[in-house]
Write a structure and sequence with these properties.
The structure is a single chain. By secondary structure, the chain is an all-alpha fold. 84% of the residues lie in helices and 0% in strands. The protein is built from 18 helices and no strands. The radius of gyration is 21 Å and the shape is globular. The relative contact order is 0.14. The mean pLDDT is 92.
Length: 444
């Protein structure tokens, strides 16, 4: 991690992570695709529950990224026992929090689905789908933590193995549960829950079989509140990023619902396709982050600077290429999900094309945010994480639809991406200058 050439090292770690992210995105799209065959309201229900899953992802990523970055730094500094304590405490913390979410969510499931944006016609499908996702909440959240711990210590292949196996299984189980067993949206949720359980078992096995440099054990669970606060503080940018994704999706659904179920379904479909493209960029960033964190802990600042520059450049090239292809084929991509509903196709195609125009700016956004987080610039990283789907997006999505109709729903995220890029560029330049002014040291 501190000696191999930076660019090949990032690519070696990024390839499994990109695969994991793409497979996760594909099985999310598979849920949307198969459920969409049941009708527009059923398709919209997946979009409603997606904001719930984003909450689970926020919990898992906050604790997983926080503990992963901290344990990576400890390993880089040769402090293995401290790394074990952080990892074990993180798993304990996520099990407690996710179990509480599952219990409260199931008790107030109907109220929760309405709060997330369900209309009366969407609600029955959302209840069927959401209840099983809530049952699987502890498994889903803990899987995110285990995945991030493995990835941040450079074991990206093992992290990929757990995530992709579950994702591929989900794709095959969806049509079987939905159509063969005639379980509808409930079947899609059951397929997702079962697949997540398999992912969890595989990821946990990596620690049991000592494939990880970290040891998970009850004896390492910290009794100090400071340990948990440090995990949460370091993961705060991820909480901002993922938590706001949930709030943004919920707000988007509520605003789109004013224009009918077709608008909710269209934004759900275009959002799934956009996330598929964005997941490639996130995968690259997550492959870069352990390199940055490990080398920053080892005080190899020149390597961190080089890694950040490479990730920003290569990420921009990748996302630009994907965005151009998606822009060209936007209509057939959207219509493949819901070809029977022209309103869904029209709204979804316009939203997807607007988003593709600004995705090319996101390479700098992701590289800057993840580098700031990995190097301990928590306040700056948190601010940037708040920008894309919070500081900029929420005012746009709350104001524009009432002024310019459904077009306001379609362009809220692209406008937010432009302003986020400007903010990111300022932080990016400052960070590169700061890293360039630090002298490498040998801490081992």
């Amino acid at each position: 991690m501190t000696q191999a050439p930076v660019e090949p090292l990032i690519m070696r770690l990024a390839v499994p992570t990109v695969i994991s992210m793409l497979v996760s995105s594909i099985y999310n799209m598979a849920d949307t695709f198969f459920v969409s065959q049941l009708g527009t309201s059923a398709s919209a229900a997946v979009g409603i529950v997606f904001s719930l899953m984003a909450i689970m992802q926020a919990i898992g990523f906050t604790i997983g990224m926080g503990s992963g970055i901290l344990s990576s730094r400890r390993l880089g500094a040769g402090k293995r026992d401290e790394a074990n304590q952080i990892a074990s405490s993180a798993v304990f913390l996520v099990i407690i929090i996710s179990s509480l979410i599952a219990i409260l969510g199931l008790i107030f499931c109907k109220e929760l689905m309405v709060f997330l944006g369900s209309t009366p016609t969407i609600l029955p499908y959302a209840l069927d789908y959401g209840s099983f996702i809530l049952i699987a909440c502890p498994v889903i959240c803990t899987s995110f933590v285990l995945n991030n711990l493995l990835r941040n210590e450079g074991k990206a292949f093992y992290a990929m193995l757990g995530i992709t196996t579950g994702g591929i299984l989900n794709i095959f189980l969806d049509p079987i549960f939905i159509f063969y067993f005639k379980l509808g949206t409930r079947g899609a949720a059951m397929a997702t829950a079962l697949s997540q359980l398999i992912s969890f078992i595989i990821l946990l096995t990596m620690f049991i079989k000592k494939k990880s440099n970290l040891t998970l054990s009850v004896k390492y669970i910290s009794k100090s509140a400071k340990t948990y606060l440090n995990i949460l503080k370091t993961g705060l940018p991820s909480l901002s990023r993922q938590g706001l994704a949930s709030i943004a999706t919920m707000t988007l659904n509520i605003q789109a619902a004013a224009f009918g179920d077709a608008a909710v379904a269209a934004m759900s479909i275009s959002g799934r396709i956009t996330f598929f493209l964005f997941s490639a960029l996130l995968g690259l960033g997550q492959g870069f982050q352990p390199v940055a964190g490990f080398n920053y802990g080892a005080k190899k600042y020149s390597r961190v600077k080089r890694a950040t520059l490479f990730t920003a450049f290569f990420g921009t090239v990748v996302i630009s290429t994907l965005a151009i292809i998606c822009f060209i084929f936007a209509r057939p991509l959207v219509s493949s999900f819901r070809k029977e509903d022209l309103d869904v196709i029209i709204i979804g195609t316009k939203a997807l094309r607007f988003q593709c125009l600004t995705l090319i700016l996101c390479g700098i956004n992701v590289a800057t945010n993840m580098s700031l987080q990995a190097t301990g610039h928590i306040a700056q990283a948190t601010y940037l994480a708040l920008c894309r789907q919070g500081i900029y997006f929420l005012p746009f999505i709350l104001i524009l639809p009432s002024k310019i109709g459904v077009l306001g729903v379609e362009i809220a995220q692209p406008l937010s991406d432009i302003l986020t890029f400007i903010s990111s560029l300022i932080f990016f330049i400052r960070l590169i200058k700061e890293l360039g002014g630090k002298k490498d040291e040998d801490v081992l």
